[in-house]
Amino acid sequence: MAENRAPMITKLDQTYAAALWELAQEAGDGTVADVVDQMRRIGALAEQQPDLVRLLSTQILSTQQRSQIIDQVFKGRVDDLIHRFIQILNSKSRLDHLTGIVAAFARLVDEQRGVVEVDAYVAHRMDDDAAENVATGIGRAIGKQVQLHQHVDGSLIGGLKLRIGDQLIDGSVASQLRIIGQQIVVAGREKARQQAG
Description:
2 domains, four-stranded mixed β-sheet, elongated
């Protein structure tokens, strides 16, 4: 189970990713498969060559200069749809969003295939069998295939916190102790009120 997670995805990233998905679907099944594969490779390239992303997104170069670099790097190496899409990002000065768009596109593809990414925050890293059991249990509960990402959080005493999309499920021992503490305080105030009344 991987520990790394995709970069932060903005609303803008999601909008562009959805537009690319629609264009790929309109072009046909073969194009969808190619676009999915090539966007994954562009994501890997962006991770391995962060300087390239910085170069493509710099405002020091003109749009035309960046366009020439895009042609040199991508033309004939990726589907024409992706090449045109990257040129559109360039013309709108959105190339600084490329890694976020790639991540949003990957998430969209996973959603279409019934896969959901879940972050598990744990006190100690789970072994592969335990992580697989957690992923399977969550998958059964939400009716999807789960791709689990573990994050070790030293502030947790035990248990785990899960983030599924925008929803946080806190089953950590620290959280349970905090809830119990709050309940004791509330009960103590209620008892004090009753004795005073």
